[in-house]
From TrEMBL:
Catalyzes the activation of phenylacetic acid (PA) to phenylacetyl-CoA (PA-CoA). The lineage of its organism: Bacteria, Bacillati, Bacillota, Clostridia, Eubacteriales. It holds the Pfam family AMP-binding. It is an enzyme of class 6 (ligase). This is Phenylacetate-coenzyme A ligase. Its EC number is 6.2.1.30.
Length: 442
């Protein structure tokens, strides 16, 4: 269902007119109330009134994660703290956390954006909705929560963790929708199987999954394991939280950006110059309606492409591709760029392999090496008694190694473990263990 047809099916000209007027208001606001932005605009010798078209945005300076850290905790707020009704923060596993803030108006707009996103992904008023995103400083739990209520659906605010209880609640409350990270929702499905339940027989019809990179192959796996339709939801706390973009139920092919609130660009991460539609690069967002924590040309570190082609659902909102990976997570192994999702894609082509994996990176001699750790499926494990000397196991190892090598273009190590060996996630999965820099684990 299209909740805001006048926006979601607007002509490009109308949308761009709205974006330009909101961009100018946002720039005036940050110029007046955030010293960091005033200084960086002054340094670039540009005033908010110099912006006459959306193309002029390339004249504005970028904002980076380090700018948020440097102004920790409240230095980038465009309102006084009395006007803030909520804070969120990143987990801050590396350095200071990044703090973001919302006014009452921001929270109301966010709830509406998420409600619209949920409707786009097939949710309806009257649905029961199991929200397995973590509640707390992370934006996933509360961000989805208020959007579900705003839509008129009933939220079951389970949060992450206690997976056996999640299964019981799904059995008892019979929700139509579920949200969580793809890795955690898969973990819930696995728990159902461990408890002797058939994950395909639940009341669930759709999943709204995101907050971590996942491949098309993992979507197929989740859809068939749970017999649901799985839509990708994207967002980041610096820009708002979940709901910046979402896939539609009809096409499941690219995520519609809430363009009336966020202006998207793709740049070449090396040169910082714009790249054409359809080409991959770093996503950059400018907020157009935020009061407490506006961001100007925020470099997300996420790799995607943009698409302006019409969509089967009738929405005209631009689509971004699924996130290929984060620049932070891009491994450069002997000169070749590798994203964990590319490894995931290869692993999931093998029925004998379960969808749980981790990649370790080490520095051996003068070379960086990559080792893929994955698991056999429980069925394969049941049938092949003598891992790893069973010829079927040896053949699997050989074929998988060959596929990884030919798909990634580099030689990698491979360890195939027994079922249940790889740590399961209750939120964002940790796919990379980087031993090259001591204590830096992503
Ligand atoms: O992960 C917000 C969110 C919550 C999005 C629930 C979707 C659902 P942060 O914790 O600030 O916010 O992390 C943001 O997570 O820059 C991406 O690298 C990654 N990410 C978020 N959504 C997706 C997605 C939330 N659909 C960072 N696909 C972002 C791939 C995603 N990566």
């Amino acid at each position: 269902m299209i909740l805001d047809p006048e926006i979601e099916t607007a002509s490009r000209e109308d949308l761009q007119r709205l974006q330009l007027s909101r961009l100018r208001t946002t720039l005036e606001r940050v110029y007046e109330s955030v010293p960091f932005y005033r200084e960086s605009l002054d340094e670039a010798r540009i005033k908010p009134t110099d912006i006459h078209s959306l193309q002029d945005i390339v004249r504005l300076p970028f904002t980076q994660k380090s700018d948020l850290r440097d102004h920790y905790p409240f230095g980038l707020l465009a309102v006084t703290t009395e006007h803030v009704v909520r804070f969120h923060a990143s987990s801050g596993t590396r350095g200071k956390p990044t703090v973001v803030a919302y006014t009452k108006g921001d929270i109301a707009r966010w709830a509406h954006i998420v409600a619209r996103a949920l409707a786009c992904a097939g949710a309806k008023a009257g649905d029961r909705f199991h929200n397995a995103y973590g509640y707390g400083l992370f934006t996933g739990g509360l961000g989805l929560h208020y959007g579900i209520e705003e839509l008129g659906a009933a939220v079951i605010p389970v949060s992450g963790g206690n997976t056996a209880r999640q299964v019981r609640l799904i059995e008892d409350f019979r929700p139509r929708g579920i949200s969580g990270t793809p890795s955690y929702v898969l973990n819930i499905a696995e728990e159902m199987e461990a408890l002797g339940l058939d994950p395909r027989q639940t009341s669930l019809e759709y999943g709204i999954l995101g907050a971590e990179p996942w491949s098309e192959a993992l979507r197929a796996e989740i859809q068939s394991t749970l017999d649901i339709k799985a839509m990708d939801i994207y967002g980041l706390s610096e820009v708002m939280g979940p709901g910046v973009a979402i896939e539609c139920w009809e096409a499941q092919n690219g995520l519609h950006i809430a363009e009336d609130h966020f202006l998207a660009e793709i740049i070449d991460p090396k040169t910082a110059l714009p790249v054409p539609f359809g080409e991959s690069g770093e996503l950059v967002f400018t907020s157009l309606t935020k009061e407490a924590f506006p961001v100007i040309r925020y470099r997300t570190g996420d790799i995607a492409s943009l698409d302006q082609e019409p969509c089967a659902c009738g929405r005209t909102l631009m689509r971004m591709s699924r996130i290929k990976g984060r620049l932070d997570d891009m491994l450069i192994i002997r000169g070749v760029n590798v994203f964990p999702t590319e490894i995931e894609y290869v692993l999931l082509q093998f029925d004998e392999i379960a969808p749980h994996y981790q990649v370790t990176v080490d520095h051996v001699g003068s070379l960086d090496t990559l080792e893929v750790h994955c698991e056999v499926s429980p069925e394969f494990h049941r049938d092949t008694s003598t891992i790893p000397s069973d010829p079927r196991f040896m053949s699997l190892h050989h074929r998988l190694l060959h596929s990884l090598k030919s798909e990634l273009g580099i030689s990698v190590g491979l360890k195939i473990h027994r079922p249940g060996t790889i740590a399961r996630s209750e939120g964002k999965a940790i796919r990379i263990v980087d031993n090259r820099v001591e204590s830096e684990i992503r």
